Amino acid sequence: MEAAWSKQYDRLARIFAKALGKGTQEIAEIGCGSGQLTIPLAKQASNLRFVLIDTFANTGTGSYSNRRYQALVSNLKKSKLFRRVRIVTADYMEWIKKQDYEIYDAIISSEFLPEITSAEIRPFIRECYCMLMVRTHTQNDGSNSVARTISTTHTRVQITMPAPLYPQSPHGDHANSNANA
Description:
With 181 residues, the protein is α/β, with parallel strands linked by helices. It has 5 helices and 7 strands. The protein has helices spanning 2-20, 38-44, 63-78, 92-97, 118-131; strands at residues 26-30, 49-54, 85-89, 106-109, 135-138, 144-152, 156-162. Strands 1, 2, 3, 4, 5, 6 and 7 form a 7-stranded mixed beta sheet that branches. The chain is globular.
């Protein structure tokens, strides 16, 4: 059974690596568990750095949660990936609320969304959207657009708008204003 799950995560890692592209640098993974998606994705794309967020069921209070955290650390060290990650033990919404806008190239999750309620989905997606960097894409007709993409195992949401309509950053200036330069 474990081999089947490993193949599934390898397949997801290839899909995510292709979707993220070569220019992607900083990834936040919400609900990283023991690194079952992180490690194959990091092997697929050596340009990525990760911020891994998980509650680990409040690490240190129970043997199961502590084993999951220790498994993640051990797996990252065995794979020689520990230097490319920062592990954050926190509730996902508390962590999100402390983040700046437009700081991550991508936000991924493999098994997290089924764990939150339908009332939590909309605020979660909205906050993730704000944390994503805006990217300029040239369309087939030569025009530019900007996009932010949120990918999970079950959902892919891409929000695209014409380039002149850059969203305002929290500082009042136009986000990524040199995108057409």
